[in-house]
Structures are given as structure tokens and as C-alpha cells.
Amino acid sequence: VECSISFECAGEPVEQIAITVENPYEGKLPASQIGLNAEGCNIEEFRFYDMETLELVDKSTPFIGGRGYMLVAVLSAKEGYAFSEQISATVNGQYAVAENAALGLITVEAFLVCEELPYFIVNFSAGEGGSGNMREVTVKGGGYFTLPECEFEGSEGKAFLGWSLDGTVNAIVT
Question: pTM score, two decimals?
């Protein structure tokens, strides 16, 4: 008795994988989904690791600015497809490591750096007819800050209404 088994791929071998993911940004939560531009495979799971602590990042924990994070994605071939032995991968257009894993899975790993939020300097001006000085305030972007009390003096008969930006009152003082 003679027995033979053969495997056939209906599609071309998957040779390139392109993944897109929102870059880590200070104060933001890890992405809840990632994009895949590769016919013939699916994303089974993905996760981020903090490269400073080497711990898995919980999806409810915001990224920390200036830190490095490792994205690890596990992909499987769709029915009728197989991964090439010479597979290459990118994450957000940058080279990523793609390795064959057990049971026909591929892992893709990419190092991403969490961008720090910029700082801004807020200056205050007495405006038309006002006088006095106020210190500038340095604030971190991406959030809110409390405007200081007005230290300017208005011209006679005028009272401070609120802070304005480009001539439009944005913060009314009550």
C-alpha cells in the first residue's frame, strides 16, 4: 500500500508584511487595533512591551514619553496561503524583524519610541489701554492648565473681562 500527502498553496507565498500602528505618544493608551497590508494573512494578536521595565504594557496604561516600546504582532496565514522562508516586514514603513514561529505563525517585532509632548510658553499682554507685567507660563502640551489671575491694570473705567486669543475672548472671568 502506497500513501502520499501533498500540500498545495492556492495563493502566492506571503513574502512581505506591512503593518501600520499609531505611534506611541505620551499620555495616550496603546492602540486597540493595527493595520495590515498583506494579502494572505491575519493578525492573531499584538502587544506592546516597555523596553525599560521589559514588562507587557496593559492596554489601559498610558505610554510614558521618551521610552522605547516593542510591538510584537503574531500573524497566521489564511487558508490556501503560506509564509515564504524569506519573509520581510515593516511597521509604519520602517524595517521590522519577522521570524517564523511554531505552527505556521510569524512574529513581527518593531521598536517604537514614545514621543514626548512638547512644552509651550504662554505669554500675557495687557492689551489695548492696559498696563503692567505678568510672567510667562510654561505648559506641557496635550492637556489643560489653569489660567492665572490677571495682574494687569485696565484703563480708567474698564474692567478685566477675560483672556483672549487672537481678539476672541476664550476664558471669561466671573
Answer: 0.66
